[in-house]
Every structure is written in structure tokens, then in C-alpha cells.
Design goal:
Elements lengths: L1 E5 L5 H12 L4 E2 L2 H4 L6 H11 L2 E6 L7 H12 L7 E5 L8 H4 L4 E2 L4 H11 L10
Parallel strand pairs: 1-2, 1-3, 3-4, 4-5
Length: 134
């Protein structure tokens, strides 16, 4: 399964750690740091990665809910049939401003143990017997 993580720049370190933890769950996560060369059109690369993904994980934080890029990625995922039941909101830092459309979905609350968070995400994606939840 190929996964795209949507996050703000302020959450990049956390996204990197989660990417590593998800790899331990046999989930392939697109990594822009290793897959975009200097001088390449990063907008096209991000768009292609999102289009090719099987699922989208949105890291929610005070910074990400203000990000236009994260908002656009959420809108794309919600409008694409390929992501039906494959858009996983993960609260990584408390925020009151969760987009209204995501408030209706079950969210995963990240814990300090990102391996446990990755197991819960894998469960939500049907990759393990773990279950997602608050």
C-alpha cells in the first residue's frame, strides 16, 4: 500500500518519524526529501505522488490547519473516489480548528509512541488486526 502524508512544514520531523514507523508496518510512504531532486518541479512531484497514493494521512496540528497546501490536499483526497475510506486524520498536536469535514470522521490521536500510532494507522488501513480510534 502506498501512502501520502499531508502535513505542515512545522510538523516535518514528526512526519519523518511516522514515515519510518509506518515502514515497519509494511506501508510504503512517499518521502519528498528522497524523491525530489534539486531543481525538479516540486509541485508536479507532490501532485503525482498524491495521485498515485492508495491512502492519505493528514497530520493535524495548529500549523497544518492553517496551511493552504494541506487544505488543498484534503480537498483533493475528499473529491477522489480512490480515497474513499482511505483518508486518515491523525491529531499530532492539539488544535481546536480541525476542518469541519474531518470532524465527522474518526480520528487517530498520535501518542508519544509513534510505533503505536503507526500500528493504529495500519489497522485503519486494513493492514493489521489493530483498530483505529480515539
Amino acid at each position: 500500500m502506498s501512502v501520502y502524508i499531508s502535513y505542515s512544514g512545522a510538523d516535518e520531523k514528526l512526519a519523518d518519524h511516522l514515515r519510518t514507523a509506518l515502514a515497519r508496518q509494511d506501508i510504503d510512504v512517499w518521502n519528498p526529501a528522497s524523491q525530489i531532486a534539486p531543481g525538479e518541479n516540486w509541485g508536479l512531484k507532490y501532485g503525482k505522488a498524491l495521485q498515485d497514493a492508495d491512502a492519505v494521512i493528514v497530520l493535524l496540528s495548529p500549523d497544518s490547519v492553517k496551511s493552504d497546501f494541506v487544505r488543498l490536499e484534503i480537498e483533493y483526497a475528499l473529491s477522489s473516489p480512490q480515497f474513499r475510506d482511505r483518508l486518515i486524520p491523525v491529531i499530532v498536536r492539539p488544535t481546536e480548528d480541525i476542518p469541519w469535514i474531518l470532524r465527522k470522521q474518526q480520528v487517530i490521536r498520535a501518542t508519544k509512541d509513534l510505533n503505536e500510532t503507526a500500528r493504529r494507522i495500519a489497522g485503519a488501513l486494513g493492514k493489521s488486526p489493530a483498530t483505529a480510534g480515539k
